[in-house]
Amino acid sequence: MTHSDFDDILIILGLGKWNLLYYATFGLYEFAVIGFIFAITFVAPNVHFSCDVSQVTEPVSVIEQCTYVISQNETYNVTTEELQEKCTSWIYNDTYFENTLTSEFDLVCDDSYLRPIFHTVLTIGGFLGSPINGYLSDRYGRRTLMLITSLIAIISVLLTTLATNFNIILVLRFFTGLTSGPTIQTGFTICMEACEPRLRTSVGMLISLPWAFGTMWWGALGYMIKDWRWLLRVSTIPGYLCLALLLFVSESPRWLIVSGSHDLALKAIKRAGKWNKVTLPSDEELLTRMKSIQKYIRRPWRDYKDQCPCWRRSKVNTKGQEGGVGGEKEKN
User: Fold this and answer.
1) Does residue 62 carry a pLDDT above 80?
2) Which residues of the chain are in CATH 1.20.1250.20 domains?
3) Rounded to the nearest 5°, which phi and psi values hold at 179?
4) What angle do CA 46, 52, 57 make, to 5 degrees?
5) What is the pLDDT of residues 265-313, one digit of tens each?
6) For residue 18, which of 206, 293, 244, 270 has the smallest C-alpha distance?
7) What CATH number is given for 4-44+113-276 in this structure?
8) Residue 197 and residue 208: Cα distance in Å, rounded?
9) pLDDT exceeding 90 applies to what percent of the chain?
10) Mean pLDDT of the chain
11) Which of 17, 31, 55, 139 could form a disulfide with 238, with the two C-beta atoms 3.0–4.6 Å apart?
12) If we measure between CA atoms, which residue out of 161, 163, 156 comes closest to residue 227?
């Protein structure tokens, strides 16, 4: 027996409520994570602004976005350069956005570099989280890690909406990136592990549709909600539904088998059979297959040797040359 024995079990299970629960859970998370990842679009946009000189007591002759110039006819023995002052407050155009991270924390002029950093720290978090996530999901389980990381991501976003210090927001943004993006990898993996072979290509494409719909949902939210804090809070709603469904999702049976948790794997498979209303092989046969799969999976070189056409062709060519088989080498 090979690891394809589990695919045989998936073929028996077919497509039913058990599989669809995985896909729905992952789809809801994709809906939510769009707002987490692309928050800069509406949360910290490039807002038009002008210098606010209402608190300046001296007469002002020139006003720019980041500086203003005190009128020279009111001052003496001072150069033009010395008359130029930096703005300390600004007036923001609220035609499209009433309250943004940009306007609330004045991320303009000398502090304009902080606005892209809001997204940069998220990217750094995702970059560091991806390899860590892969290791942890193999060690502790797909469902377990997805539940933990999605919960951390949602909490990080909610705490971001409560924060009043920009440095704290950046720290929370880092944790959002550390957990939100990598959770997509785990979710996709568990969906593929619960899908029978003939449907994997179709399912792999279809479970990406919530990402596309989530992009439209995020655009609609950004149009309707003008306050960045409430925008992020509303964007987490699909995440709550995802967490609720995760409580009913079984751990990946494939992972349970590979990790040696055969009793739990048997329980998960029998539950899947009940939900999908199919008849499964006996418990003894299922356990026998599990032991065979686990034994085989520990020797991945055999899987490569048996299944890779390149390996087989190389082996045939080598034997042909050693045995003096005639004909062209490419055909041997």
Assistant:
1) no
2) 4-44+113-276
3) -115, -35
4) 165
5) 999 999 999 999 998 888 888 888 887 776 666 554 444 445 444 444 4
6) 270
7) 1.20.1250.20
8) 18
9) 41
10) 82
11) 31
12) 161
Looking up tokens 């950046």, which residue turns up?
170
Measure the N-to-C terminal CA separation of the chain; round to a whole number of Å: 29
The pLDDT value recorded for residue 183 is 87
Q: What is the pLDDT of residues 154-197, one digit of tens each?
A: 999 999 999 999 999 999 999 999 998 888 989 999 999 999 88
Strands 90-92 and 49-51: antiparallel
Global pTM? 0.78
Per-residue exposure over 204-232, b if at least 16 CB sit within 10 Å of its own CB, e if not:
eeebeebeeebeebbeebbeebbebbebb
